[in-house]
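for ur thesis appendix - DUF1868 domain-containing protein. copy paste whatever u need, i formatted it the way the template wanted (i think)
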Amino acid sequence: MKEDITFQPVPLFNRKIDINGNYVPFHGYTIMSHVEHPLPEQLVKLHEYLVRSKFSDYFSFLPKFSYHVTLNPLINVEMKRDEAILKEAQMNIDKLETGTKCMVKQLTRKDKLQLEIELIEPFLNTILKPLQAQWTKLDTILMKYEEKWHLTLAYQYRNITDEAQVILDEIIKNWTQFPFEISLDPITICEHQDMTDYVAIFD
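the 3d part is after this line
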């Protein structure tokens, strides 16, 4: 009997990552700001601290070039239909100085390892809120988004034992170098093929 060598895909842990910690295709669009490079020393050290820890047994770390803060995800985008309105939105963004500084307040863990971000004045009320009012024109493709501002460092890819939960929480507790400041690049509307790379749709 001929051996069946049919390719068997690696099972998914969730829609974005498989059980080996590999990011899988997950196409979408979002309004976001990349973290400005070079990254601040505190962020680089935190990344290294976490990668060398028990977290790597359960979380797959994103490449540092992908670090960003999501301002509003988009859904059901069809570029043939939506390109004009998205281009108008990006043009309105580009009229303003949307690069900003923000504060990293703390490290949190659920199914993602994230840094909680605090957006500061005058960006929040004088830049972002007026833009958000304009984005109501995107209502058919604008996702309702109520998450706290954050920067995702890693996604979970394995179930965590009770014993490991305690260890991971202790790792977080032992990192005390908060708060610290990071800078964000200007706001861009980006497309992603997976969770590791976001590319501006308009140059």
